[in-house]
Specification:
By secondary structure, the chain is α/β, with parallel strands linked by helices. It has helices at 8-19, 22-25, 38-46, 67-72, 86-96, 140-143, 161-171, 201-209, and strands at 57-61, 78-83, 101-108, 111-117, 129-132, 146-152, 172-182, 213-228, 231-244. The longest helix is centred in the N-terminal third of the chain and has 12 residues, at 8-19. 41% of the residues are buried.
Amino acid sequence: MSNPYEDEELLAQYLLFHYGSDDEVLPWKHGPREALRFAERTVHELVDRSSLNPDSRACDVGCAVGRSSFEMAAFCSEVIGIDFSASFVAAAAGIGAGETISYSCLDEGKLGTDLEARRPAGAALCDPDFQQGDAQQLDSAELGTFDLVHAANLVCRLPEPLRFLAALPDLVRPGGQLILATPATWLEEFTPRSRWPSGSMLEYLRESLIPSFELEIERDMPFLIRETARKFQWSVSLGTRWRRK
């Protein structure tokens, strides 16, 4: 299957989603500001940091342009970010190396605003290692096991999501945690209808992850993607934390 994420406009949209300031993403004071900073909130609101230590390993599957990976690097000694898009991985790696990535934010029509994406400020225990890879072909023999696996807005964008979910017990160490966030916006351009759940997303995850994992928390997490200065995608992702038995 061709990769729909190798697109310059989409790269710019994700750079804004991950690194744009609140006012750059949402230039309206009356807008849904609780939906901003999603790539940060999935880490800070769903991860149980009390069960981690400075030697913990983390994997960010479907890392896109890397913001969640950098958030986890603040408290993990090793972070591997994996994404199917070569352009996303290149941008994340460049930002991690200290580069400033220039991009254009679409305002309306042919008008745009030039912006820059930089690595978030603050202390970090490591520099994330960004790799191009397929979430449906994760190899624990090659990657090792992790204390924390994070995958945000990924499951419903995979051609074979059950392949990804089936690999997770081998990737997460006993006692480790799995963070999943998904808006359950199934589309045939990504996933054949025959592979959609017959019930709710939470039921689908339970059936796939139990008995290897125990569900610890469930939280609705809104997020906002800017298309233009006057048009946005407002969605609500189902955020969950699972503990490896």
